[in-house]
Amino acid sequence: MPIFKTATMETLAEISEEMRMRKTAHLILLFSMGSQFDHLIVQQLARLGVYCLVADPASVRVEDVQKLKPAGIIVSGGPASVHDEPPPFDEKIFDLGIPVLGVCLGFQMWAKHVGAKVTPHEKREFGTHTLKILSADDLFEGVSNGTKVLQTHGDSIEPDSIITILGSTENAPVAAGRYKHLWGVQFHPEVTETDKGAHMYENFCFKICGITDRFPAHNVSKEKIENLQKQIAGKSAEGGSASGGKVLIALSGGSDSSVVAYLLKEAMHPQGETLKSRSQGLTLRGIYIRGIDRPDDEAYVKNYFGKQDWISVEIADATKEFLAALKGKMSMQEKRVAMRDVYREVLEEKIKEFGADFIAQGTLYTDLRESGLGNATGARVAEIKVHHNTGIKFSVPELTPLSDCVKDSARGIGRDIGVPEDLLVRHPFPGPGLVVRIEGEITAERLKIARAIDGIYIEELRVADLYKTVWQAGATLTRSEHTVSKGDDAGTGYVVALWAVWSVNGFTARFAQLPYDFLDRVSRRITNEVREVGSVVYRISDKPPATIEWG
Ligand code: XMP
Fold first, then answer.
1. Residues 417 and 337 in one domain
2. How far is the CA of 429 from the centre of ligand 1 (A)?
3. Within a domain: residue 431?
4. Spatial CA neighbour of 438 closest among 525, 315, 339
5. pLDDT digits (tens, 9 = 90+) for 315-373
6. Residue 360: inside a domain, yes or no?
7. What is the total count of domains within the chain?
8. Of 158, 179, 208, at which residue does a domain stop?
């Protein structure tokens, strides 16, 4: 996704070419203030057929916007506060008369600009709230009073005579407001927890900004396959490869890397083309790294990829290397970094052995964003956790065709190209594996316990027909100990924390309300069957403020 930084002749020409291709005369400019959800705004608008151009608030000036003439402007949320670290932004843009939708921080920014009072709120609002609609406005046409909205903010806007209050929630008297051509919401219409969020964006684009055309949806999978073909062919044409473009892919048995493998299959062996026989050697190799994985991951890789005629599969056992690198490491961040080093080293070794020209990974946009990467704008992006597959410098170029996708869109591509449903519906699993589900030092013994509790939990979810009703579930081995009395014996045992979430794309999540009798059964099985465990608790936090994984 190109970022708009300044309106040079070249960039304006590029943008108008993009608009010609998309058969649209309108665009929405999104100032990305560093929110975790920015990408969802782009996706939301893409679904509506609206071209959304991401702008860098640190470099775009009012003159650039005047030259670009967007139909509307969205200023997103972000980690900054209008009080102590006002984000870089040319506020004259608010005076242009172009319709603006400020989301969370974006709303607070224009509210302060027009003279309203923005104060740090005593009660931070996290989670889903009920929106009371107080004034009729195009933004809420077709949205009923009492709709659910997701808020995550600390500062709030004081009610005064400047801003027309359009809606409020329990802790935010000005949850939605308007001042002339400026609209604002304290909640996030782009996340699935905001029931009518897509509708609000539709109203903003078509009713408020007056957009009259929608670009035809294009075949995303086809585009991704063609891009892969170009990337791989480019290397061969450069003369860099005698092999015709060998690709090594890190397979985890989960949906993202599986989707990438199938995209590569289509790119490297377009339909109808005879596949090279195994004896001639395949140009696509999958590597599964053993060591910190779940009990059944390896079996999935072997079952679904082990016997194909378009990919060869190798299992690399890195148990010893992982344990050595993780020895003495206590914090989740330290462990994530140590795990990533082993991951890189194993893949580097395999790249050399195979003579690969490329390394492919199932990296998602979510992974990049949470690692503090993603849109290359000047706004500060919070580093939440370093994902195992981001920011690694490999010796060969990376192929990451899903790096602009989130979980649901990646699954959509998978369905389009025939990835087996069984792989697509597997719960997501983090690349750092059980490392982020074990508190404190990772040892062989604690890995064994983590595998055992995961095995029981997931098995029971399947038996109870609950597996597919939750988006992701996991069992964390904590460092807390609980006094136990097993039989006549007494002592201490670890506390295990179970969690399960409902989500669509992993950006936000609600804790799943699993039935008590189910939790009862799992708890009994774990405390009975896993000697080292003393008690079991269930986590009831949403994301935000928590994240899905423990670490
Ligand atoms: P969090 O815990 O950040 O997770 O709310 C969002 C989704 O991403 C998965 N996750 C990871 N996936 N490498 C990955 O490939 C990682 O380092 C990583 N960390 C978290 C997590 O399981 C959830 O589905």
1. yes
2. 7
3. no
4. 339
5. 999 999 999 999 999 999 999 999 999 999 999 999 999 999 999 999 988 788 777 77
6. yes
7. 3
8. 208
Query: Is 494 a residue whose pLDDT tops 60?
Result: yes
At 17-38, the pLDDT tens digits run 888 877 789 999 999 998 878 8
Give residue 384's pLDDT.
Answer: 73
Atom of ligand 1 nearest to the CA of 546: 5
Q: Are residues 394 and 480 in the same domain?
A: no
What's the pLDDT band for 279 if we cut at 50, 70, 90?
A: very low
- Residue 373 shares a structural domain with residue 243: yes
Do 13 and 42 lie in one domain? The reply is yes
Question: CB neighbours (10 Å) of residue 84?
Answer: 7
Helix, strand or coil for residue 281? coil
Please count the CA atoms within 13 angstroms of the CA of 495 that sit on its side-chain side: 11
Q: What is the pLDDT of residue 30?
A: 97
User: What is the spatial distance between Cα 143 and Cα 287, in angstroms, rounded to a whole number?
Assistant: 49
Question: How far does residue 400's CA lie from ligand 1's centre (Å)?
Answer: 16
**CA 440/CA 196 separation, integer angstroms:** 42
CATH for 278: 3.40.50.620
Residues 265, 290, single domain; the answer is yes
**Tokens of residue 223, six digits:** 């585009």
Note the pLDDT of residue 114.
97
Question: Which band of pLDDT confidence, cut at 50, 70 and 90, is reported for residue 412?
Answer: confident
How far away, in angstroms, is 428 Cα from ligand 1 center?
A: 8
Is the C-beta atom of 542 inside 6 A of ligand 1? no
List pLDDT tens digits, range 50-106.
Answer: 989 999 999 999 999 999 999 999 999 988 888 888 889 999 999 999 999 999 999
CATH number reported for the structural domain that contains residue 43 in this entry = 3.40.50.880
CB 335 within 8 A of CB 550: no
Contact status, residue 242 vs residue 402, Cβ threshold 8 Å: no
Does residue 550 belong to any structural domain of this protein? no
**327 with 471, same domain?**
no
Task: Considering only CA atoms, give the Rg of the chain.
Answer: 25
Residue nearest to atom 18 of ligand 1 (CA): 430
pLDDT at residue 153 is higher than 80: no
Q: How many CB atoms lie within 10 A of CB 299?
A: 12
> Does any ligand 1 atom lie closer than 6 A to the CB of residue 221?
no
Sequence-distant (6+) residues with CB within 8 A of 487 are: none
What spatial distance separates the first Cα and last Cα of the chain, rounded to whole Å?
29
**Catalytic sites, residue numbers:** 104, 188, 190
Q: Is 437 in the pocket of ligand 1 (CB under 6 A)?
A: no
543 lines ligand 1 (CB under 6 A): yes
d(CA 26, CA 16): 10
**Is 138 within a domain?**
yes
CA dihedral (513, 515, 518, 523) positive or negative: positive
Same domain for 171 and 103, yes or no, is yes
What is the domain extent for residue 403? 220-424
Tell me, using a 6 A CB cutoff, whether residue 257 lines ligand 1.
no
- Å from CA of 104 to ligand 1 middle: 25
Is 506 a pocket residue for ligand 1 (Cβ < 6 Å)? Answer: yes
